[in-house]
């Protein structure tokens, strides 16, 4: 007669095996577009991400630069069930943005990059520090 612990471990081993069999590495290299129309050009080289971020929005005119784009640097990990990413850009006016999230390969073959972001704007003085950080989320869809 099997003990409760043996059954419990056996059931969870089967479930974990099914989950691992369904884990699909998600290739992040390419062009991505988010819900606001910003475009992300990423190249994964080993565990590093490089590319350009073309912003469709600005907090004030000109803060992202004349072409509203910035160089992107980051890291990637394929060690878990899904591909994890973290990347940052430094904007023309001195503010910086960072995203962290996961890339998911969907059953229909499409890829989606779900991220949380933080934008740190330049504070003119310590008293303005409280209003210099914004946070949100972006969903990027793979374009090409």
UniProtKB/TrEMBL annotation:
Residues 1-25 form the signal peptide. The keyword Disulfide bond applies. Keywords: Biotin, Disulfide bond, Glycoprotein, Secreted, Signal. PROSITE patterns: AVIDIN_2 (PS51326). InterPro entries: Avidin, Avidin-like_sf, Avidin/str, Avidin/Streptavidin-rel. It is found in: Secreted. Its main location: secreted. GO terms for cellular component: extracellular region. GO terms for molecular function: biotin binding. Disulfide bonds join 26-103. Belongs to the avidin/streptavidin family. This is Avidin-like. It comes from Coregonus suidteri.
